[in-house]
Amino acid sequence: MGRNASTWIDFLDANLTIWVILGFPVYQSISNRKTYLMHWRAKLADDGFRREYNISANGEAVTRAADITVETAVAAEETAVVETVEVVASLAAVITEAMVVTTEVIMAITEVMTEEVEVTVEVVAAATAEVVAEEETVAEDANYHAKPQF
After folding, report:
1. Which residues have CB under 8 Å from 45's CB, separation 6+?
2. 7: burial class by Cβ within 10 Å (0-12, 13-18, 19+)?
3. What is the chain's alpha carbon radius of gyration, rounded to the nearest angstrom?
4. Which of 14, 63, 68, 60 is nearest to 37 (CA)?
C-alpha cells in the first residue's frame, strides 16, 4: 500500500505543478485571447525583449531573423512534400511493375501446370490402354487354357 500511495502522490504532485504553472496562461489564452496577447507582448517589451525581438506593445512583432526562419521552414516543408510525393510515385511505379511481373509468373506457372496435366492425362490413358490390352490377353490366355483340347 505504501508504494501505491507514494506513486499516486508523485503523480498528483507532478500534474498539479504543471497546471499551477500553465493554468493561468492557458485559461487566459482560451477565454481572453486578444487582451492576453496584448498584455503578454507589453510585458515582453517592458522586460527588455524589444531590442532582441523587435517587439512593440501594439502587436507588431517581426524580426528579419524570424522572417528568414519562417521562410526557411516553409521552403523546407514544401521541399519535403515534393520529395515525399516523388518517393510515393516511384514506389507506386515499382509496385505496379512488381504486380505485372507477378501476373506473368502466375500465367507461366499455370501454363506449365496445364501442360503437365495434359501430359499426365496422356500417360495415364496410354498406361490404362496397355493394362486393358494386357488384361484382355491374360483373359484370352485363361480362356484358351481353360478349354479342353482334343
Report:
1. 55, 56, 57
2. exposed
3. 44
4. 60
Euclidean distance between CA atoms 130 and 20, whole angstroms: 98
Enter the C-alpha cell of residue 91: 514506389
- Give the relative orientation of helices 2-31 and 33-44 as an angle to the nearest 10 degrees: 100
Question: Tens of pLDDT along the chain (150 residues)?
Answer: 678 888 888 888 888 888 888 888 888 888 888 888 888 777 776 776 656 665 555 544 444 455 556 567 677 777 888 888 888 888 888 888 888 888 888 888 888 888 777 778 788 888 888 888 887 787 776 666 656 655
pTM for this predicted structure: 0.33
